[in-house]
């Protein structure tokens, strides 16, 4: 079994890491470390064709993201990070499953700029929180189209001051359908291309 296959098998059915059994988190970290050593894309910030697209979160160590999954009222649905290198934009979209007709959405829009072969500087520009129905949410691609058209939503739609931000993201592994990143707060993200 390849390292990539081992990682995907370990993460299958683990709800982005929330359901890992004792010892499995260390297995994930060990496999991730080994995959990063053999990264097939040595300069990921220059591989725009590989970065482009919608990526679904498979695993993270980000407690702020995982804490959205707080039963009994809400549950974390799919989480996406959508990269648009042609416009230097990153969109984070977390679907929230709630009571009937009360499914929610948390989204951020940010711009990014490559500052090294592996690192991008990220400046968050907009934060959107609301009910999927009021936002007329259908898919990440449609939401991004509306954000790019500068639509204002019936939701919390808040501009973010980017002047004092010091956010970055390192792309530590990148191939056609798997991306591993490490963020400025030490969080690990494993994503697959949709």
From TrEMBL:
Q: Where is the Plastid lipid-associated protein/fibrillin conserved domain?
A: 1-192
The record's section on InterPro entries has: PAP, PAP/fibrillin_dom
Please, which domain of life does this record's source organism belong to?
Bacteria
A Pfam family matched by this chain, by name?
Answer: PAP_fibrillin
PANTHER family xrefs: PLASTID-LIPID-ASSOCIATED PROTEIN 4, CHLOROPLASTIC-RELATED
What is the recorded name of this protein?
Answer: Fibrillin
Organism name: Planktothricoides sp. SpSt-374
Q: What is the lineage of its organism?
A: Bacteria, Bacillati, Cyanobacteriota, Cyanophyceae, Oscillatoriophycideae
């Amino acid at each position: 079994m390849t390292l990539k296959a081992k990682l995907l098998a370990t993460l299958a059915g683990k709800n982005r890491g929330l359901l890992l059994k004792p010892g499995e988190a260390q297995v994930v970290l060990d496999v991730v470390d080994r995959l990063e050593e053999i990264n097939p894309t040595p300069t990921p910030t220059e591989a725009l064709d590989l970065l482009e697209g919608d990526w679904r979160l498979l695993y993270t160590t980000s407690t702020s993201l995982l804490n959205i999954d707080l039963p009994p009222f809400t549950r974390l649905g799919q989480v996406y990070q959508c990269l648009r290198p042609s416009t230097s934009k990153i969109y984070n979209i977390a679907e929230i499953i709630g009571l009937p007709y009360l499914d929610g959405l948390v989204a951020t829009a940010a711009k990014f700029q490559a500052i090294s072969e592996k690192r991008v500087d990220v400046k968050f520009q907009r934060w959107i929180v609301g009910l999927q129905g009021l936002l007329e949410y259908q898919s990440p691609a449609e939401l991004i189209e509306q954000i790019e058209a500068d639509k204002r939503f019936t939701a919390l739609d808040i501009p973010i001051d980017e002047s004092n931000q010091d956010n970055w993201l390192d792309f530590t592994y990148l191939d056609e359908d798997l991306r591993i990143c490490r963020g400025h707060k030490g969080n690990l993200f494993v994503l697959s291309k949709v």
